[in-house]
Amino acid sequence: MRFSYLTVMTLLLVPHILIPIILIVWTWKKQNHSMMGWLFQILPFALYFVFIFLMGSWALVSFYLRYAFPALFIIAVIVSYLRAKDLPFWAETGIMGWIGIGASLVISAVLIYLIIGSIRSYSYDEKPLNLALPFKKGVYAVFEGGNGKASSLMNYHYEGATHKGAGVNRSMKYAVDITKLSIWGNDANGFLPKENEKYAIFNEVVYSPCEGQVYAVVDKYPNEIPGASKSSHNVGNHIVIQSGDFLVLMGHLQNGSIQVRAGEMVEKGQPIAKAGNSGWTTQPHLHIQAMKMTQGSFWFAEGLPIYFDGKNPVKNTLFFKSP
Q: Do 178 and 317 contact (CB within 8 A), yes or no?
């Protein structure tokens, strides 16, 4: 998926950093007049932290912050509670107080609805295929994954306007986007760098997640500059492997790195390419999806859910791979 550089920065900095800091400081400093007022303040704040913990794009920001901000919020809640625990349960409130309570309930209801969708994205209509994670060393994070029909905030592939418009969203219903984490807990050395080489996953060897026969190979697209990719190139350079009655596609591969040809047999764990940034992407990563065998183009086939090494790759799942 591709957004403008400014849009990506805004979508990352505001919900992941600015809003959590504001909520933590507000919780720490706010003086309440009753326990009821305290509860109506804390409820939407707590739900927001659950929401952003589950659905945030932490691979692009930092997984350290994913855990640090909730910890700081819990500390702020404890301090706030100790200050409010001896207050009366209810105090007279004016029109602005009732407006605040109404806003709290509306915001809480919206967040609960989104959180329920996030939880539903962990389950699938079909039994997942158990594939091998196509990487062998490092910490890898899923930044789009899960049941896209249940929550587009967990996995945009199914509800994405471009995919739906092209009629390929059914095959992408359970698609997974994977990146590698740097020592900073995000996917790059720096914040949204423009150089592919600064991304931890770029140039990483991609291993076959299953045994089978190479069904299709495309290797003609250049690596794009992060944030400047071409929608017409879709998943860019890719490999499709047929294993039994299903197909597995791996996309955004590095130009010239593909080591297999159509018709060739491959083993699980065999090196087949390198991760790149070809096609329609915001930054280097691996796109992988599984589909049922079908007549005609596999892009219109029924998507199949995936597990990697028995683990459900929903958004923000981490995979730790030893050398």
A: no
